[in-house]
């Protein structure tokens, strides 16, 4: 099948790389977000998808707003004979004129079991809410976000140790396993698909800056879920000795303590540190980042800051 690929971040690049390994799947061109400034130099950096596309000598097209530039985009895309557009974490909503252009329409890979968690942050939100299972849905694009008919769903288990990074990797691999058999071989009609039950739809939004502030009065389970939902890119933070401290990785532990003091620290040994949550239970701290410091293990944190049982998070 001849396709065009729309995507931007690293998971999209992994999917594109897998598609390029299949002789029966011909990627005609790639659409990705414009290069963005990064680092102190603010030098524009291409997206991971663009890097893969250039390495494969594929035509690459970038639009600040594909909605506003749809006429130019359509004129460009019409020069190719792609039968299907494949979208995975592109980062912009495609207008109807674009997604309905190819012979077989356009399909999107979404990181949840639709109609649950429609929206911008399904992977983070599944962790935030403490799900033990999520999945990857392949759906037709429609005029309303994530409401298209479902072609396939593959479930993915969520482990207690998963964060957004590890769960996204699982979902991406499940997407590759689902998509490639779908695209291989000749096709004369569109994919068989089923309408969603819109009455069961739930929604999620982008993670906001205020979501990173950790409320230490929450239960250990709730705090652990929020910390792993925010890792490994954003991190949740609290205050320690009057400065910001990012918590990157935690683990629930069983420990008996009679006094409930949210944020109270307790050294277990030279390499183990726990803190008490609002329900009286504890989380073990595995990775932190003090203000103006690099990310570090809890052992380095304990040694560098001489942590005692008198310390606490605020």
From TrEMBL:
<dbReference type="InterPro" id="IPR005794">
    <property type="entry name" value="Fmt"/>
</dbReference>
<feature type="domain" description="Formyl transferase C-terminal">
    <location>
        <begin position="206"/>
        <end position="306"/>
    </location>
</feature>
<dbReference type="InterPro" id="IPR036477">
    <property type="entry name" value="Formyl_transf_N_sf"/>
</dbReference>
<feature type="domain" description="Formyl transferase N-terminal">
    <location>
        <begin position="1"/>
        <end position="180"/>
    </location>
</feature>
<dbReference type="Pfam" id="PF00551">
    <property type="entry name" value="Formyl_trans_N"/>
</dbReference>
<feature type="binding site">
    <location>
        <begin position="112"/>
        <end position="115"/>
    </location>
    <ligand>
        <name>(6S)-5,6,7,8-tetrahydrofolate</name>
    </ligand>
</feature>
<dbReference type="InterPro" id="IPR005793">
    <property type="entry name" value="Formyl_trans_C"/>
</dbReference>
<dbReference type="InterPro" id="IPR044135">
    <property type="entry name" value="Met-tRNA-FMT_C"/>
</dbReference>
<dbReference type="InterPro" id="IPR041711">
    <property type="entry name" value="Met-tRNA-FMT_N"/>
</dbReference>
<dbReference type="InterPro" id="IPR011034">
    <property type="entry name" value="Formyl_transferase-like_C_sf"/>
</dbReference>
<comment type="function">
    <text>Attaches a formyl group to the free amino group of methionyl-tRNA(fMet). The formyl group appears to play a dual role in the initiator identity of N-formylmethionyl-tRNA by promoting its recognition by IF2 and preventing the misappropriation of this tRNA by the elongation apparatus.</text>
</comment>
<comment type="similarity">
    <text>Belongs to the Fmt family.</text>
</comment>
<dbReference type="Pfam" id="PF02911">
    <property type="entry name" value="Formyl_trans_C"/>
</dbReference>
<dbReference type="GO" id="GO:0004479">
    <property type="term" value="F:methionyl-tRNA formyltransferase activity"/>
</dbReference>
<dbReference type="GO" id="GO:0005829">
    <property type="term" value="C:cytosol"/>
</dbReference>
<keyword id="KW-0648">Protein biosynthesis</keyword>
<dbReference type="InterPro" id="IPR037022">
    <property type="entry name" value="Formyl_trans_C_sf"/>
</dbReference>
<dbReference type="InterPro" id="IPR002376">
    <property type="entry name" value="Formyl_transf_N"/>
</dbReference>
<keyword id="KW-0808">Transferase</keyword>
<protein>
    <recommendedName>
        <fullName>Methionyl-tRNA formyltransferase</fullName>
        <ecNumber>2.1.2.9</ecNumber>
    </recommendedName>
</protein>
């Amino acid at each position: 099948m001849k396709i065009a690929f729309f995507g931007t971040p690293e998971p999209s690049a992994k999917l594109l790389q897998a598609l390029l390994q299949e002789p029966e799947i011909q990627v005609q061109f790639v659409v990705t977000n414009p290069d963005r400034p990064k680092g102190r130099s603010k030098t524009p950096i291409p997206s991971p998808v663009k890097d893969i596309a250039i390495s494969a000598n594929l035509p690459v097209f970038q639009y600040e707003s594909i909605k506003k530039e749809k006429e130019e985009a359509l004129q460009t895309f019409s020069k190719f004979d792609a039968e299907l557009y494949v979208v995975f974490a592109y980062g912009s909503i495609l207008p109807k004129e674009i997604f309905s252009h190819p012979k077989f329409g356009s399909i999107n890979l979404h990181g949840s079991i639709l109609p649950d968690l429609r929206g911008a942050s399904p992977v983070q939100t599944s962790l935030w809410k403490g799900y033990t299972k999520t999945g990857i849905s392949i759906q037709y694009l429609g005029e309303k976000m994530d409401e298209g008919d479902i072609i396939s769903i593959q479930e993915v288990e969520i482990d207690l140790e998963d964060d957004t990074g590890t769960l996204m990797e699982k979902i991406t691999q499940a997407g590759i396993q689902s998509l490639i058999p779908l695209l291989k071989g000749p096709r004369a009609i569109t994919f068989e698909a089923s309408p969603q039950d819109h009455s069961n739809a739930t929604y999620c939004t982008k993670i906001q800056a205020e979501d990173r502030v950790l409320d230490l009065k929450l239960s250990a389970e709730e705090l652990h879920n929020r910390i792993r939902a925010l890792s490994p890119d954003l991190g949740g933070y609290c205050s320690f000795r009057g400065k910001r401290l990012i918590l990157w990785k935690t683990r629930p532990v069983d420990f008996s303590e009679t006094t409930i003091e949210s944020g109270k620290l307790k050294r277990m040994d030279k390499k183990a540190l726990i803190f008490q949550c609002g329900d009286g239970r504890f989380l073990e701290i595995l990775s932190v980042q003090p203000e103006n410091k690099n990310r570090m293990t809890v052992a380095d944190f304990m040694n560098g800051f001489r942590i005692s049982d008198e310390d606490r998070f605020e």
